[in-house]
Fold this sequence. Notes:
The protein is α+β, with helices and mostly antiparallel strands. It has 2 domains: 36-56 and 99-267 and 311-431, Outer membrane efflux proteins (OEP); 62-71 and 80-98 and 269-305, Single Sheet (Outer membrane efflux proteins (OEP)). Helices cover 68% and strands 14% of the residues. The chain contains 10 helices and 6 strands; from the N terminus they run αβααββααβααββααα. Strands 2-3-5-6 form a 4-stranded antiparallel beta sheet, with no helix packed on it. The protein is elongated, with a radius of gyration of 39 Å. The two termini are 38 Å apart.
Amino acid sequence: MRKILALLLAGTASMSYAESDLISLYNQAVESYPSLIINTNDEKIAQSQAKQGLALLMPNVEGSVSYGASSSAGDNDADVRFDKGVMKYKVELTQAIFNLYAIKLYDAFKENVTATKYETLSTQQTMMVSVAENYFSVLTAKDTVESVQSQLEAVKRQLEQTEQQYEVGLAAITDVLDAQASYDATQVSLIEAEATYDTALQNFAVLTGQIPDKLKVLPKEVTLPAVESGSVSEWVSVALKTHPDVRSVTQTAKYVEKSYGANKANRLPTLAGSVSYTYSDYMKENALLGTEDNGVTEVGISLTVPIYTGGKTSAEILEAGLNYNSALQNLELTKRNVELEVRQAHRQLTADIANVAAQKKAVESSSKALDATQVGYEVGTRNIVEVLSAQSTLFSSKLSFQTAQYDYLLDILKLKQAAGVITEDDLVSLNNMLISE
Length: 437
């Protein structure tokens, strides 16, 4: 009963709309992300294959039981007829003494186990960035909704003010129409922003299996972390050594190379030893003759020499050789792609630093421009269109500044992922910057 109650409470908690943060959503993704589950299964499959390869080198014990009957008769009916049955029990142990094919195949399987572990690590690192990317997409969409709502309220106040001025003859009808048009356009923008926000929330279901309701946010005033030092060449050097994709493909190339060696070794003789014990229980129909039992122990060594397999072995060697060449080409391609991703991520992060500074200045300039335009409107040197445009520019600048900060934080993670050095600690550090609304 207590267990059922606990399950019900857990189900209720999962359905509640508690505030989520980056780490809680990442943990949900770890538990339910299909790609990560597939990678985990691939690891287990590779480990199972390695056990199968080891089994070819281990002793093999088999037991068998058989029964047979025979009869014999004399030249005439007067001769005694002997019918007998035999029950045989056999236990046999075989052990490979020399099988280079099995040895190399087992070594190849061990390389594949390591390769699948790096594939899982690569998926985990990609998922870290994907969760953060989706998280900031939601925050950006949310900020857009709030920005448009604030703009709508400002335009509405301006419209009401313009209508009042028109009623007392201080504003032209064109000013009212311009303000109304701006208000209507802003309402449309709000509808679009809300739809984008809803879509951003829905996208989380792909990663976590559920839609978050409320997220912690980045403070309006925040000190952005500094970028780790290092030239782009240094980042590339690290990536080519540590990136899980490079390491996974490297291990795969080793796996294919050793599989190639195993196929070539399949042409060599194999040597095996065996020990067997057979116990025979003879049961004769003539009770006077009784029964005879005996046991036989056999020890042997067998040498197997492959002579001709119809071309199968040669075809397998050719196939394995081509696979090895393809694996080497794939390794080179992976290294090139990783280097490109590092250089692009490093370049983007450098641009982000300048962009954040520029967007901050743009907010300050837009605020001053709006104040000046508002004063000009009050004294008659500026019209309502210019005021509305200045308001829109200020809201847009504030939103762009907030988005630039998100991009900067996200691109730090992307650079680390490109270099293969991103860890959960990076998500924790970023998560610690978030606050409740």
